[in-house]
Amino acid sequence: MPKTSQPEEDVINVAAPPGFNAEAIPIHEVCVNDKKVAPEFLEPEGLKTRLQYPPEWQPEITDENRHVIATDIISKRQAAGKITRAAVLIPLLLKENGLSVLLTQRTNHLRDHAGQISFPGGRMDPEDLSPDDTALRESQEEIGLDPKRVEIIGYLPQYLTVSGYSVTPVVGLVQAQEEYVLDEFEVADVFEVPLHFLLDPANHQIRLWQSEQGGRRFYSIPYENRFIWGATAGMLRNLYHLLKV
Question: Which contiguous run of DSSP H or E holds residue 167?
Answer without folding.
Answer: strand 166-174
